[in-house]
Write a structure and sequence with these properties.
The chain has helices spanning about 20-25, 70-75, 95-105, 125-130, 145-160, and strands at about 5-10, 30-35, 40-50, 55-60, 80-85, 110-115, 135-140. With about 160 residues, it is an alpha/beta fold. Strand 6 (about 110-115), helix 4 and strand 7 (about 135-140) form a beta-alpha-beta unit. The radius of gyration is 14 Å and the shape is globular.
Amino acid sequence: MDPSRLKIVVFGSFHAGKSTFIQAIDPGSRHVDAECADGTTTVALDFGKAEIDGKLIHLYGTPGQERFEFVRQIISNGMDGAILMVDCSCGVDEFTRNLYRQLTDMEVPLSVMLNKCDLSGACPAMVRQELEGAMIHEISARNPGNSLEALQRFVGTINKKR
């Protein structure tokens, strides 16, 4: 393990904002996606980088469909932290609940990012209640400022645990 680098993996359901979050952090990020009925979707991974507190942060975004479980397993190998992206305009679906349980069981530092809180109909309070006990940050993944701020706070907690 290289102490000057952190591997953080971003999980979440389809269209939760994982790719948008990584692109907000690193505009030069890379994405492996395919066309779908709703635009594009990640089919392999997203990859971006940032430097926080002198550490190089590698961000890996995972596909949000159940059929790509094997990809999530491969990408999560050796991760130093996990982010669970939740679309607050939709609430917590069963896929997200399962991801939350799996990530909690892995005993890796975990942050829940409540995305799309700025949209009408968003229900961050309901999501907070359902994921009680989680480290939660409300963000808009389209906003580079608050996305980076949430990532910085999360990285700070990982650094304290090392």
